[in-house]
Description:
The protein is mainly beta. The strands form 10 sheets. It has a 4-stranded antiparallel β-sheet with strand order 7-6-9-10, with no helix packed on it. Strands 13-12-11-32 form a 4-stranded antiparallel β-sheet, with no helix packed on it. A 4-stranded antiparallel β-sheet has the order 23-24-27-28, with no helix packed on it.
Amino acid sequence: MADMTISGVSISGGFTLTLPPTVPGAPTIGTATATGAATATVTFTAPINNGGATITSYTATSSPSGITGTLSQAGSGTITVAGLAASTSYTFTVTATNSVGTSSPSASSNSITTESGIPFRKAIFGYGTTNVTNLVSDTGVVSTDTAGVGTSRRGLAAAGYGGDKALFGFGGGGEPYWSALTNLVSNTGVVATDTAGVGTGRGTLAAASYGTDKAIFGYGYSDPTSRVNMTNLVSNTGVVATDTTGVGTARNQLAAAGYGGDKAIFGYGNTDGGSGYTAITNLVTNTGVVGNNVSGVGTPTANLAAATYGIDKAIFGYGDSYGPFIRASATYLVSNTGVVVSSQSGVGTGRSSLAAAGYGQDKAIFGYGFGGSGNQSVTNLVSNTGVVATDTTGVGTARYDLAAASYGS
């Protein structure tokens, strides 16, 4: 019999029918899995019917937002979808494509929620009246002493830099021994030996992170009569810059913390070594520029500590006040726009010359200091809503005039 074609169907000798190819059948959906703040994977099984033409690719599409990921192969597999939003729920469908076109979508996958993208940070307390450090886990558990590295000193400050590291800086044994030494801390909490100082040596200053990966040291006390308002910026590689001319009231025994995701705030302190306690604050932009004085909120306080909490807010807490002299445990919350918004009744042992740092994804910890019966090693955890917990039994050497910072990721 001669070959012939009828309505697009080819019939050849032996009565073999060759149908024209069509789009593939729909793949069978598998399991969707969140793999980060912006990524997920989606598994699928290839359709039994490829439409008579080799399948060349598969596409997963998110709901909501229609974000896609493609895998170029013929058989079953796993597709990675990137560009998702953090902390967002998604489902996915999968289509198959051959030379003719694209299949109808599969059934929807299970729902997933992407990760928050906020790192799990740890913290480190270091130096003070005893040259040891104490690491803090990302759940707020303080470890026993680690032998100190570098020059023993007190009245120093610390901050995170580089996204996952920290540094201790300045401090000393009291006038005229204030230094500008720094000690870098790796993202595993290992403290390095001394780095030669840059800028004016001083103590009882403060430091904070700014600009997502840099830090700033500011203010302090350089000799018995000289309280300063100069600052020193720190690059994202831990290099300290020379002095920047000061802005705002010169003072020492203040505190600082990051807020708003990429800015910082200096607050409170003492202006004259006597009754000159203050509650003024100075905001720092995300480029490290310090603003003028902002009128104080709450009780003028010195020798306090501060830390970031709740991702983008800050808390000042504890310290001492004058008239009459008292070691307090009150705290002051700072909004994500840098406004000191409220005071809270004190919780835990009133003490001064302590330190604080953020830990976990969005919490903070106050620790150590001087008060009550003397040197303290108690800590107080701060929730992601700024609520301070009662004392946690101290771990490590009781001490004061120390510093603390977040590190790791």
